[in-house]
Amino acid sequence: MMTFAQKSFYQIFTSDIMDTIILEKLDCIHKMLTEHNMLQKEVLNFNEAAIYLELSHSHLYKLTSGNFINHYKPNGKKIYFKRTELDIWLLRNRQSSKDEIDQLAADYLIKNRRVKL
């Protein structure tokens, strides 16, 4: 049998755990909504683009200042990005799989008559 002090401690302890769980779930929901809203936007600001690309602000700034990534400055200061252009930038420099390379090599050898069938 629990004493009154033990019951109070148990209630406070479980209440704190439940509060922590609820706050973690709310934080998760907030992140999901933010990501969903970002996917609905066609134009992203600098902070949104850094989150979308999963880059630090300093790295994204280096990419924009070196003109390595497409960006827009309508008033000369704030930087904006088109999400579709960011997607294209992310998908550049595709690496072929081993199977694709093997198939290309086989096709090349057959085309140039270096392999007899």
Describe the protein's architecture and organization.
With 117 residues, the protein is mainly α. It folds into two domains: 40 residues; 76 residues, Multidrug-efflux Transporter Regulator, Chain: A, Domain 2, CATH 1.10.1660. It is built from five helices and two strands; from the N terminus they run H-E-H-H-E-H-H. It has a two-stranded antiparallel ribbon. The longest helix has 37 residues.
Brief description of this entry?
The protein has helices at residues 4-40, 46-53, 57-65, 83-90, 98-111, and strands at 43-45, 80-82.
Task: List the defining traits of the structure above.
single chain; 117 residues; mainly alpha; Multidrug-efflux Transporter Regulator, Chain: A, Domain 2; 2 domains; two-stranded antiparallel sheet; 65% helix
Strand content: 5-15%
Distance between the termini: 86 Å
How many domains? 2
Radius of gyration: 27 Å
Order of helices and strands: HEHHEHH
Provide the residue-averaged pLDDT: 85
Q: Number of DSSP strands? A: 2
Structural class: mainly alpha
Overall body shape: flat
Kindly identify the CATH topology of the largest domain: Multidrug-efflux Transporter Regulator, Chain: A, Domain 2
Any idea what the CATH architecture of the largest domain is?
Answer: Orthogonal Bundle
Provide the CATH top-level class of the largest domain.
Answer: Mainly Alpha
Low-confidence residue ranges? none
What is the makeup of the main sheet? 2 strands, antiparallel
Helix content percent band: 55-70%
- Enumerate the strands of the largest sheet in spatial order, edge to edge or round the barrel: 1-2
Number of helical elements: 5
